[in-house]
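Students often ask what a holo structure prediction actually looks like on paper. The answer is less mysterious than it sounds. You provide the chain, you provide the ligand, and the output is a string of discrete structure tokens encoding the 3D arrangement of the protein together with adenosine-5'-triphosphate.
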Amino acid sequence: MTALLEVRNLTKSFGGLKVTNHVDLTLEPGARMALIGPNGAGKTTLVNLITGALAASGGSVRLMGEDVSALPEPVRAARGLIRTFQVTRLFGSMTVAENLRIGAIHRQRRSYAILRRTAVEQALDEAVARVLAQLRLTDRADTPVARLAYGEQRLVELGIALVMEPRVLLLDEPAAGVPQSESHIIMDAIDDLPEDLGVVFIEHDMDLVFRFATEIVVLVSGAVICTGTPSEIAANEEVRRVYFGEAAH
Ligand SMILES: Nc1ncnc2c1ncn2[C@@H]1O[C@H](COP(=O)(O)OP(=O)(O)OP(=O)(O)O)[C@@H](O)[C@H]1O
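The corresponding structure tokens follow.
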């Protein structure tokens, strides 16, 4: 089976500072991969290199077997490499459905070009309705985003990514800023995503990581120090020492 995403030897330097150091990652369909590491470990930079927001100094990114390393960010997005941001970027005065429609229009450009106008409108409505239902936001469709609780705003942000029909979804701290009592709503939504999708998420809350990840990648000083299942990572001495700050015995 071809991996959804294959990152090989990815490297990035800012001047003399190597912030991504020969990183290898493989994401299979259905994976929920958590990217963890101390502040400044290079997690966001790695996501930016994968999406093409930042140009790599070396290495390659393959999406469903195809080398996309030389492609700009919008072209990678059009092929299904979609990301969300640490801080929400929504249109507060517009409704939930209108925000999702913007994502749907981006998607439309890539595949509805041959349809008639009414068919396009219908396809947009259907795509928005599908994602609203998937995220249990249907009853919020006509509410301006600024009136939603922050946790729901983050769900809308996830919705915009979903309406673009990702094959690989990269989430930069999807539950950041959401009260802990509500963060499971977002993680449950991620957990419920279609089986054939691959998800990479940056998360600092270890409870969420160990509850939702199928695979964990530990990044320290730009390099992957360990990759494994949650139980393998929990048992790894080096991770406990370097990342969780436990004294070596
Ligand atoms: N544009 C830039 N120019 C110079 N250095 C940068 C730039 N962007 C990031 N860095 C540096 O790269 C390193 C990694 O930053 P990055 O934001 O990727 O880490 P992170 O693991 O996502 O951190 P956090 O958990 O705090 O979000 C840091 O030392 C940061 O200062």
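The two ends are 42 Å apart (CA to CA).
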